[in-house]
Structure formats: structure tokens, C-alpha cells
Amino acid sequence: MSFRAYASDEYEAVIALRKKWRKEWRGMGAWGIGFFENDQAIDWKYELLEGSDLSFVRETLEQAKVEEFLDADLSVQALAASEIIAALLGKPGHEVKNNEGEIEDLVEWIARYQGKGKEKELTPLALEVVNRIRLDSELRDLWMDAEEFRKWDELLLDLERRLR
To answer: What is the pTM of this model?
Structure first.
């Protein structure tokens, strides 16, 4: 088998897998249930990394709190922000703890800012926002249609526990 044929077969397999994921995740731009396993959270992460404090995290959480309609994109970003707070409190989820996915730079950022004290004042806000997303958001509605809804809901409950 030539390299070109092998590469073509491998490419077709990847395309087929992506189509399956897109269908299952209903266009959410997600490849898993984790807080950083979607396009919106990864984009949000890059913006966070440009800053040198928690102001971007605060802005994201405050926006999620006051929006009348909590859309999927803002929900994803607010969950990422809440996971940052939990990690800064020394209670990271499995993605951060195990440095899974596209977050190596984020793990370094967390290590650099951990223990600065500001995360404690944002904890009640993060907890309120996670609860809202879990109970009444567009993201919840999208996940309800997915096979992985129970796992996603358990992930949010775990985040709420880690924020307490």
C-alpha cells in the first residue's frame, strides 16, 4: 500500500468519525463532555491566557449571571471559567488534574496564579452560574438531546461540589 493510499484511508476514517461526532453532539463544536472539550472553551481559554489576572474570568461569570437567555456559547465559557476557579482553589477536575486535551498552557497559567486569593471571592458567583447552567440554559437543552446527558449533568454536579 502506498503512503498516499494509506493517508487517504486514514483521512476518510477521520472524516467519518468527525461526522459521527458532529451528528451526536448536534453541532455544539464538542468532541467530549469535558469543560475544555469544545471549540468555544478553547477559544475562551486563549483569551484568558492573554491576561494576567482573574478579570476575564469575573467578566465571563458576571455576564452569565445577568443574561436573561443563557445561550450555549456563554454557558460553555462560564463553565470553563468556573473550572478555573475550582482549580485555583486546589480542586481541579480530571481534565486539569490530568492535563488532558489542549490545556497544557492553561495548567501552567493556573499554577502561576494559584493561591493569589482572588478566586475565593469569585467562588459564590461561579457556583451560582454553574447551577443556573445545569438547570436552565440552552446548553442544558442541547445536552438533553444527547446520549451523554447524564454524564454531562454529573460533571456539573461534581464541579458544584468542588466549588463548595
So the answer is: 0.82
How far, in whole angstroms, is CA 44 from its chain's centroid?
A: 9
Q: Which residues make beta-bridge pairs with 38?
A: 30
Domains: count for the chain:
1
- HEC string of 15-81 equals HHHHHHHHHHCCCCCECCCCCCCEHHHHHHHHHHHHCCCCHHHHHHHHHHHHCCCCCHHHHHHHHHH
Q: How many CB atoms lie within 10 A of CB 105?
A: 12
Is residue 5 in a domain? Answer: no
Distances (CA, A) of 45 to 4, 57, 78, 154: 36, 10, 11, 23
Asked whether residue 22 is domain-assigned, the answer is no
Residue 11 lies in a domain: no
Q: Which domain holds residue 89?
A: 29-163
- Is residue 87 within 8 A of residue 109, CB to CB? The reply is no
Radius of gyration of the chain (CA): 17
Q: What is the mean pLDDT of the chain?
A: 88
56 inside domain: yes
pLDDT at 11: 61
